[in-house]
Specification:
Blueprint: E1 8-14, E2 17-23, H1 54-126, H2 132-206, H3 213-226
Antiparallel strand pairs: 1-2
Helix pairs in contact: 1-2
Length: 227
């Protein structure tokens, strides 16, 4: 029987964004939001230095809005990634349980076969000492027991053959989903790194810079008028 891959990529949030961890055990803790607090300028800071021009402030505000929009989209993508992760883990557990159930049935049949064979040997030893009628009755009883056991064995072997064929298809489908999930996760994490780069760039360009509140009010009115 084919073997399921033992690792499923898991996307988890770090303080600075998202990263992938390989896990087959305890699920990752619920992730925090990929979008941190807005990087928009607060009230007019007391920092000294040349005030930003209105165009500079407009550019900084626009960049900040783009960052917030990208973070919101990543939050939705994160939910999709974690949902797929959980579905893959559940599917793997279901497949493992199916294999375990067949193994349990097989072990029970082996024990029953051993007991039936032992009973047959006991009957052979006791046969010379039995009356003809008693021996016939015991043989018929044993033959009925053996026939019932053979029916169980035949049913188990048929189920095992079917399970192996279905498992081979299931494993291929599962592994294809794992590959697609890994690519999705890699793309997602690259997007998070891109978002973090934009945040850092914004801090260097716009963070802690003084501006005129009147410019901010005017820009907000401009934006409201475009909606």
């Amino acid at each position: 029987m084919n073997t399921l891959r033992t690792s499923v990529a898991v996307a988890v949030l770090l303080a600075s964004g998202l990263a992938v961890a390989q896990s087959t055990g305890t699920p990752a803790k619920p992730a925090a939001k990929p979008a941190a607090q807005s990087a928009a300028p607060a009230a007019k800071p007391a920092a000294k230095g040349k005030l930003m021009t209105r165009d500079e402030l407009r550019s900084c505000m626009a960049s900040n809005q783009e960052i917030d929009d990208q973070a919101a989209k990543l939050k939705t993508r994160q939910a999709d990634v974690l949902k797929e992760r959980d579905e893959l883990k559940a599917l793997k557990e279901t497949n493992a349980k199916s294999d375990s159930d067949l193994g349990t049935q097989g072990d029970a049949l082996k024990a029953e076969i051993a007991a039936t064979n032992a009973a047959g040997e006991e009957l052979k030893v006791a046969a010379p000492k039995m009356e003809k009628a008693e021996l016939k009755a015991k043989q018929e009883e044993f033959n009925a027991r053996a026939a019932a056991l053979q029916a169980k064995i035949d049913a188990y072997n048929a189920a095992l053959t079917t399970a192996r064929a279905e498992a081979a298809k299931a494993v291929d489908a599962y592994n294809a989903r794992v590959d697609a999930f890994q690519k999705h996760t890699d793309d997602f994490n690259e997007a998070v790194e891109d978002l973090n780069d934009k945040r850092n760039a914004w801090k260097l360009k716009c963070g802690n810079r003084s501006y005129d509140e009147n410019d901010e009010i005017a820009i907000k009115k401009e934006l409201a008028g475009k909606k």
